[in-house]
Amino acid sequence: MRKHIYAGILFAITLVLDVVTKSLVVSHLSLHERIDVLGTFVQFTLVYNEGGLFGILQGYQTLFFVISLIVLGLLVVLYVSERDRTPLFHYAMALIGSGAIGNILDRFMSMLNLSNRPGVVDFVYIGDDAFFRWPAFNVADAVIVIGALLLIIVFYQEEKKRTKDSE
User: Fold this and answer.
1) Which DSSP string corresponds to the chain?
2) Residue 78: its pLDDT value, please?
3) Is-contact 14 139, C-beta < 8 A?
4) Please, are residues 123 and 27 in contact by the beta-carbon 8 Å criterion?
5) CB under 8 Å, gap of 24 or more: what pairs does 43-47 form?
6) Which residues are catalytic?
7) Would the pLDDT of 161 be above 90?
8) Bridge partners, 126 (sequence order)
9) Strand 120-128 to 34-38 pairing
10) What is the rounded CA–CA span in Å between residue 82 and residue 89?
């Protein structure tokens, strides 16, 4: 039971962090304005993503909204159906779920014109303009990636244990 409570707390904290940071960026930055955080390597900038991952398929926000809802539903089924998972599994799922919901909320608000945001708010900009700059992302994107990496570790550990048990 404790792992569910801790996962719930992690879920809530990361979702609130995503919503608050997006709100702060929208209220304090103009579109494409850049603020140096760690020199020019890490910057904050306001960008709206009306597409999918890394800005692909701009303008297909409804498609990505539907895909996100389906993936979120599958995550809930996986979380509920797995009984004997480690706390790391629960934390990974909490991170992925909160990130998914953070971006779903942005898409939903944008699609229904409930905000002045034409898409998902992205604002963390990493890299060097002369060499390579990673596409802008947000807290939701970051926690999804962290959660996915943790999930890979969980499945790797389970496979390693399964292989050891079958020997």
Assistant:
1) -HHHHHHHHHHHHHHHHHHHHHHHHHHH--BT-EEEEETTTEEEEEEEE-SSGGGTTTT-HHHHHHHHHHHHHHHHHHHHH--S--HHHHHHHHHHHHHHHHHHHHHHHHHTT-SS-SSEEEEEEEEETTTEEPPPB-HHHHHHHHHHHHHHHHHHHHHHHHHHHH-
2) 87
3) yes
4) no
5) 43/125, 43/126, 44/123, 44/124, 44/125, 45/123, 45/125, 45/136, 46/121, 46/123, 47/121, 47/122, 47/123, 47/125, 47/136
6) 122, 141
7) no
8) 42
9) unpaired
10) 10
- Give burial (CB, 10 Å; 0-12/13-18/19+) of 114: exposed
Size (the chain), residues:
167
Contact 141, 64 (CB under 8 A): no
Per-residue model confidence as pLDDT tens digits over 104-147 = 999 999 888 888 888 999 999 999 989 999 999 999 999 999 99
Give the neighbor-by-neighbor strand order of the sheet with 132-133.
34-38, 42-49, 120-128, 132-133
Helices 139-166 and 87-111, interaxial angle, to 10°?
Answer: 150
**How many Cβ atoms sit within 10 Å of the Cβ of residue 72?**
16
Rounded CA-CA distance 91/8 in Å is: 8
pTM to 2 decimals? 0.90
